[in-house]
Write a structure and sequence with these properties.
Elements (H helix, E strand, L loop, with lengths): L2 E8 L2 E4 L4 E4 L3 H10 L3 E6 L10 E8 L2 H9 E8 L6 E9 L3
Antiparallel strand pairs: 1-2, 1-5, 2-3, 4-5, 6-7
Length: 101
């Protein structure tokens, strides 16, 4: 079953849908950059109130990962490097180096 996390951006502050502050940034650009880096996707934009003009409210969501998927994601430490026999170039293999299990 897929579970989703939701938040919204108002100015330069990121909030949970319940209204709790997740992060407060100095500039809106930093907030947008953080949301993108953390895997949040834009789903809706609420325009400012015409009676009391202000800023838009941007709603985001991202898939909440199960503990097994998160454990696998963080156990991957990097791709193995292999040397081609006919050249000295390093080629990235499709095998991953795992730590733990």
């Amino acid at each position: 079953m897929v579970h989703w996390e939701h938040c919204y951006l108002l100015g330069s502050m990121v909030f949970t849908v319940a209204g709790d502050v997740i992060r407060d940034f100095d500039e809106a650009y930093e907030a947008w950059h953080w949301l993108e880096r953390e895997g949040w996707g834009l789903v809706a934009i609420e325009p400012p109130d015409p009676i009391r003009p202000g800023v838009c409210k941007y709603y985001f969501k991202r898939q909440r990962l199960s503990l097994d998927v998160m454990a696998d994601r963080y156990l991957v430490t990097g791709k193995q490097r292999a040397v081609s026999p006919d050249t000295s170039e390093h080629q990235t293999s499709t095998n991953y180096v795992r730590r733990g299990r």
